[in-house]
Amino acid sequence: MESKANPFERLVHALGRLPGIGERSALRLAFFILKNKPEFADDFARALQELHAKMRFCSVCQNMTEVDPCPLCQDPKRDSKMVLVIETPQDLLAIERLHEFKGLYHVLHGALSPINGVTPEDLKIKELLFRVQQQALEEVILATNANVEGEATGLYLYKILKPFDLRITRLPSGVPVGAGIEYLDPLTLQRALQTRHPF
Is CATH 3.90.1150.10 the classification given to domain 57-198? Predict the structure, then answer.
């Protein structure tokens, strides 16, 4: 009869299931946690438990938040007539670090990928259409990634948004093909936002 894995092995296994973490990285992280004071592990475990208990999607922009609507959507200083459509919360963080964009966001939580079974129903597209219909938007900026999935998603969104009376723009092609927004350097991202063009 196979013996049950001990807590260290379970931790290594759990860490190894994270994206980009192989067995060696999982081992290194597990040893790091083990070598630290117990308070570190307690804080780490508490953060993980509170993640699902307290975090949710913002009912407006679909970003992760502890309060609903999120602080960005509630900020009266932001331009509520302009919405930047992005794929992931990581993209939002990358853009917010610039302190350049003053509008609102909409997070799709992915991109269309028929090969991987990702359809429009799997993304937060219905919620975007609801915003377009309910809010007095003037511009929607499509900032999907410059790869096959991102381009397909941008084209799909353009087609369904075109009947509405608003300006549809896109970040320029200076954003490298195949690059994710969250990995762009701040200057490239800043210039892309400043020089966006009609779709």
Answer: no
